[in-house]
Amino acid sequence: MAQLQQEGLIERMASTSVRRVGRPETALTIAASAGVLVGARLEPKTIRMVATTLAGEILAHMQIDGSRNVRRAITLLQKGIQELLTQAGENREVRGIGVGIPGMMNREGRLVLAPNLGWRNSEIRPMLEENLNAPVYVDNDTNAASVAECLFGICRTVRNFIFITGHSGVGGGLVLDGRLYRGTGGFAGEVGHLSIVPGGRACGCGKRGCLETYVSEASILARLEELGRTLPDIWAVAEAQGDPKVRQVLDEVGTHLGFALSHLVNLMNPELIVLGGNLAVIAQLLMPTLKRALAEHTLRPLLEDVRLEVSPLGADAVPMGGIALALEGFLTSSVVMAEERSQRRG
C-alpha cells in the first residue's frame, strides 16, 4: 500500500466520523486524480460510453452509432472514446477500459455467442487491446452491470438480488450471498432465453418464445410497428405513454416480464429485483402489470421477501459495469506490479 501511495494511486483521508483521543484515524481511498476509466456497452445499433475518475465520479457520457461488424464496431469505439475524453476535458492517462457485450462469455473471457450482434467464438479482448491504447476488460453486459450495482448503485448492502436489463436482448445477473453467480461454464443469467411462450416469436438464438422476443427494446419497437406505431427508441416509448397502442404494448411487456421473474423468485428467493439499462427508462410504466403477474405466479412467502427497484444508474448501468471491470483490473495489476517492484528493491 505504501508503494501505491508513493505512486499517487491511493491517498489517505482523515476520518471525521468518530472523534477519539490520540492520533486521528486515517482511511485509504483511490486518488481520483490518478487517471481516467472508460466503460462501454456494445450493441448492434449503439455504443454507449462513460468516462469517470478512478473514484467512479462521472466526467462525461455519450452514445454513438454501433455496428454488427466486429472490426467496424471496434473502430467506432476507438473514435468514440477519443470524443468522450475530449468532451470530458481530460488528458490524464486512461488506466483501463471495460466493455460490456450482450453475449455469452466463458470463464476464460472468450465470447462464445452474441446472437444479437451476430458474433460467435471471438477473442474480443485481444482485438480491442490491439486498437485501444489501454488495458481492456470484457464481460457479459448484465454481469458487468450487476457488479456496478454492488459498487455504485442500490445493492451495496444487498447479498441476494437479480439484475435485469433489456437492450437489443434481455440479460440477467444473479448475485447469491454477495457473489456474482456465473455457473459451470460462465454462462449463468441468460434470462432472456427463458421460454415464456412455447412456439412463440423466433429468437436470434434459434429457439422460439424467448423472453427477449417480448421484452427487449428491439422487440418493443417491433411490436409497436405491428400495431402501426413507429418510434425510434425506448425514450420515445416512455414519452408516448399516453398513446393507447403504446399502453397496450407496455402492459404486454409487464405481464411477460412478471411471469418470467416469478420463476426466478420461486427458484432463488432473492431480496431484491433491480430493473436496469433501457428497462429502467420504462420500469415505472411496467410496474402495475409486472407486479400483478409476479404476484399471480409467485409463492406467497417468497413474494413477501422480494421487492422491486429501478436502478439509479439507468441506461448507464452497463457502461458503469465497464467502469467496475476496469477499476478491478487496474487495482489488481497495480498491486501486483507494486509488489514486484518492492521485491526487486528488497
Reading off the top of the CATH hierarchy, the class of the largest domain is best stated as Alpha Beta
Q: What would you call the shape?
A: globular
Total beta-strand segments:
15
SSE order, one letter for each helix or strand: HEEEEEHEEEEHEHEEEHHHHEHHEH
* Whole-angstrom Rg: 21 Å
Number of helix segments?
11
- Separation of termini? 15 Å
CATH superfamily of the largest domain: ATPase, nucleotide binding domain
- Number of domains in the coordinates? 3
Low-pLDDT runs: 1-5, 16-28
Structural class: alpha/beta
The main β sheet shows up as: 5 strands, mixed
Strand order of the largest sheet: 5-4-3-6-10
What CATH architecture of the largest domain would you give?
2-Layer Sandwich
Average pLDDT confidence is 88
Q: What is the CATH topology of the largest domain?
A: Nucleotidyltransferase, domain 5
**Fraction in beta strands:** 15-25%
Organism: Stigmatella aurantiaca (strain DW4/3-1)
Family: Belongs to the ROK (NagC/XylR) family.
InterPro entries: ATPase_NBD, ROK
Protein name: Transcriptional repressor
